[in-house]
Design a protein that fits this description.
Length: about 150
């Protein structure tokens, strides 16, 4: 028998940590499904986006800035490199690390993926007004600040 949820809304009001975890999981699943339909994982998309905006950097920097586990970042970069979207070269200032660079093919792939983001965001956050989305973004930024 399907009924309207009564307990979880009360729990979410009392425990914003639980509400945020559940909302994060739902949005993360939607983002992965969307990114997969675009031919990139979320992590891959974020790496391409960061490289386009800040230029070449190490895998360690990408992992730290994007908050992706370092071991996962290796796999992300392996896939992007095998697809021809990035190039890894020894970092001339630190031969122990690699500089990851966006390729022209990666720039093209990123442009295509970015074009689909506004519609995804509108769908994923349809329950919020534009002002509420801005407020949410601001509050999350404060929670995630170093």
């Amino acid at each position: 028998m399907a009924t309207e949820p009564t307990y979880f809304p009360r729990l979410a009001a009392e425990r914003p940590d639980i509400a945020l975890c559940r909302a994060s999981t739902a949005v993360a699943r939607a983002a992965e499904a969307h990114a997969s339909a675009q031919g990139l994982g979320v992590g891959q998309h974020l790496v391409l986006k960061m490289l386009a905006e800040v230029g070449a950097c190490s895998q360690q920097t990408l992992a730290a800035e994007l908050r992706i586990d370092r071991s996962v970042m290796v796999t992300v970069c392996d896939h992007l490199e095998s697809s021809g979207y990035v190039r890894r070269e020894r970092n001339p200032s630190d031969r122990r690390s690699y500089a990851v660079t966006l390729t022209p093919a990666g720039s093209d792939r990123l442009r295509g993926a970015e074009a689909a983001i506004p519609a995804f965001l509108d769908n994923a956050f349809a329950a919020l007004s534009p002002a509420e989305r801005l407020q949410l973004t601001t509050l999350l930024g404060r929670l995630l600040a170093p």
